Every structure is written in C-alpha cells, then in structure tokens.
Amino acid sequence: MTIRRASPTAISLLIAVALVLVPAVSLAGIPGTTTSAKLAAGNPNPTVSPIQSRPYGKTYSEWSVLWWQFFLPLTAAEFADCTIGHSGKVAFLVTGPATCTGSVDPGTALFFPVANVECSSLEAPPFHGDTPAERANCAASFIGSVGTLSVTLDNTELKDLTDYHVVSPDFPFTVGPDNVFGITCANECSGKSSGEGYYLMLTPLTPGEHTIHISATGFGIDTTFNLTVRH
Predict the structure, then answer these.
(1) What is the residue extent of each domain of the chain?
(2) HEC string of the chain?
(3) pLDDT at position 29, please?
C-alpha cells in the first residue's frame, strides 16, 4: 500500500504508514532497474506484466498515477475495509492492513504497490512540496527506506521485485475532509502530488480463491490479501 502517515483518528488503522517516518535499513540496488541480461532471459514472473510493458495500454508509471488518484481520497474506514478500486479491466488493491478480503470478476488484472510514497502540495512537511521538482525529490528521499521487499502469490515467491521500480509524474488529485492521510480540507481540496514506489500488475488469476502476501520491512508492510475471483 501507500506507506505514510494518517490523521490522529486513523493512527490505529494506519500504523504501518507512520513507520516511514523512522529511518530504516536501506535496500541495496535502489532504484531497481531491469537489466538487459534479465530482459534477454525472459519474464522471471509469468504472472506479472513486465515493467517495460504497457498493460491495457498504459505504462506502469501511468497506472501508478491512477492508483494514487483512487487511494488518496479514501477514508480511513475505506482503507481499513481494504476497498478495491477499478479502472476498466484493472482492479486496484491496497496494502497496509494486516489482512484483507475481497473479490473481483474473472478476467480482472490486479495492480498494487509493494511499497510506495508520495509528497504533495496539500500536505505538511515532511511530505510537502510546492513545485513538481520539490515533490519528486521529497518522494525520492523516502523510497530508499523500503527495506526488504517480498510478495508471494499462492505460496509462490515472486522474483526481482526491485526491478518494478516506478516513478510517478506530477499529477492532480482531489480529496475530501475525511481522507486517509488526514490532509486538512474543509470541503473538497485539489492539489498536486508526485510519487515513487514498487508496483506489480498481476495478470488475471483463475476463478477461485487466491492468497497474496505483501511485505516491505522498512515501511512496516505485512499484508495478506485473501482474494476471490468470481466464477
């Protein structure tokens, strides 16, 4: 999920988010890059769209923007309920809660962060930036503390997760007064944000029950998502 901080009333729900404020062990090789040798060897994760691909007509960077625009307006309750977002044939999953349960239609791809962070024009320091450059530099300053990344799909461990490093361009977003990060807003507020993180686009899973376990030690992420693909 998004790893950051929340409003005082949501601290118990978003405890993992707050951990980004604590310096963590740096992950070697950040940012991860897909080497030519790995590309030549083929896709190490057949259930994941390659980072250089354009699944459903969009790059990973473009999908990350859509994910943030879905996530930032969520309320603390919606986050705790592991609300699933949708954009066409792609479902957006949140990470952060210890356990999530949800369902999607068959033929639905799954896009989610292993660990990510954003900085915006609406937030207070240390997550504030007045210009696109300031916001991008702000996000980059936190992403080095993700720690060890791990994702298992139905007990199969996915490989080379640092290769799925994504930088989001500066993008617009809108939140209401009850939003997951506790951004001060009397009615509806619009701002600009830049993000950075590690994301996966899982290809559609077979109908039935699936388990996705997501971990990022430096961000305090340890989420088990129990997902049903409807028949």
Answers:
(1) 8-229
(2) CECCCCCHHHCCCCHHHHHHHCCCCCCCCCCCCCCHHHHHHCCCCCCECCCCCCHHHCCHHHHHHHHHHHHCCCCHHHHHCCCCEEECCEEECCCCCCEEEEEECCCCEEEEEEEEEEEECCCCCCCECCCHHHHHHHHHHHHCCCCCEEEEECCEECCCHHHCEEECCCEEEEECCCCCCCCCCCCCEEEEEEEEEEEEEECCCCCEEEEEEEEEHHHCEEEEEEEEECC
(3) 32
